[in-house]
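User: Could you walk me through two proteins back to back? I'd like the raw sequence and the structure tokens for each, with a short line separating them so I can tell where one ends and the next begins.

Assistant: Of course. Protein one, sequence then structure:
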Amino acid sequence: MARPRKIILDVDPGPSDALAVCLALSAPDLELVAVTATGGNVGPRQASRNVQAIIEQVDPDRFPRIGMADDQQELLTDNRRLWGADGFCGVELKVAELHQQHPAVKLLADEVRSAPGDVTIIAGGPLTNLAALLQREPELAAKIGHLIIVGGTCG
């Protein structure tokens, strides 16, 4: 049996990204090593909270690492008019307070560096984290196994 493909989802969680995280967590041929948040459907702080809420609600056997969006991240898109202030149409999922929060860009760098050529990054939101990663450490571009960009639509 082939080993599962290591993936990182970089998302701005609204309903579609929540579904993507759930599917990735349940796919036997994928190893979801991390989920990183970026602002887009909602602001960076809410995006981070949403990533954590999705994973806690699904309660997978193996929790992926969670990368928090930079609170100072400029919000280039804003779909709160579509999905509400929380990005989930007002569901208000509760989350436990994390004692150790990992910045999304650092987490991306650490995971790519630890498995050069083996990590696929799937960017489902604005490319803010990916841009910051490659500006800080351009040599990591050659170490990303695959890059799949799902974003790019305007709401």
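----
Protein two, same layout:
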Amino acid sequence: IQDIPVKCQYIGYNNLSVGDFNFDGTLDFSVFKESFAGSNTSTIYFIRDANTTLYTESEFIGGNNLDFDYENKRIYEHTSCCAGNERYIHTYKIENYKMILIKETCLKFNREKQDYDEVNCEKN
């Protein structure tokens, strides 16, 4: 048995999730950490070492709104700001149990079109 102290908000049955978060074929678990402005949330991911069966807190950059694509072995981070007028999508791959940024998409709401336009991320 492993004792893992965690500082987080308790929100009931959705507080804990299980999945293969680093795509190594071994089930890991995550704990909801906290909510931020808008729909932004943070989760702590614990990765299981297949050799020792022990869990270690990952270095998944705070785990902000992460979606896991098991087929393509990619992680997508979705964040927003400015009352939802700006959205950011970051695509990561996993190397050595760390998230490596491979693509960044920035969107800004266009009031005339009532839809988002892709914009240069360096200007935001």
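Strands lie at 16-19, 28-35, 41-48, 55-57, 66-69, 74-81, 86-95, 98-110, 115-119.

Let me know if you want the two compared in more detail.
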